[in-house]
Amino acid sequence: MADFAACLAMDREPDVTKYIQGPWNDPAEHERFLIDRIERDWGPRLGYWSIFAKESPDQLIGWILLIPYEAVGPDIDIGWRLRHAAWGRRYAAEAARPVVEHAFETVGLPRIVADIDPRNVASIRVAETIGMRFAGDRSYANGAPGKAYRMTRDDFAAAYRRNP
After folding, report:
1. Span 77-106, pLDDT tens digits
2. In Å, what is the CA distance from 45 to each residue of 8, 65, 135?
3. Which residues of 22-57 are buried (b: 16+ CB within 10 A; e: fewer)?
4. N or C: which end of the chain has fewer CB within 10 A?
5. pTM for this one?
6. DSSP 8-state secondary structure symbol assigned to residue 14
7. At CB < 8 A and 24+ separation, what contacts does 1-4 make?
């Protein structure tokens, strides 16, 4: 909750939530949504992680999530959101990599998933940069198109192979 106000401000940046469904235009519902997301128990070792730039460690620039897909699972979703001022600086991929490692090495997940609006080219690049693979086109509940990305344990082992 320490980052609540900064998260709320980030979500109010029109470009930040342009491709994401949510209660962005209803201030009271937006606050309830955000409180629920922050305070909900997503399960052991799952949740949201705040992102701070090394050069500005007191200023939230975004977050990474690892939560049940569509808030219910069984798949686990990885996602990211950054303030517009932090875009194009590779922060999302840099912050997502340790969360990917956490997903497979600590939590022991068999795979992680991400659905991305096809117009959100930057988010697609982040998914591909961290080793996710395109798994097909899909439609959201409201009929909007989406692109499904996946990373299996085998994909992770290949992409994150460490030298002995």
Report:
1. 999 999 999 999 999 999 999 999 999 999
2. 24, 11, 26
3. eebeeeeebeeebeebeeeebeeebbbeebbbeeee
4. C
5. 0.92
6. T
7. 1/35, 1/38, 1/39, 3/38, 3/50, 3/60, 3/63, 4/34, 4/35, 4/38
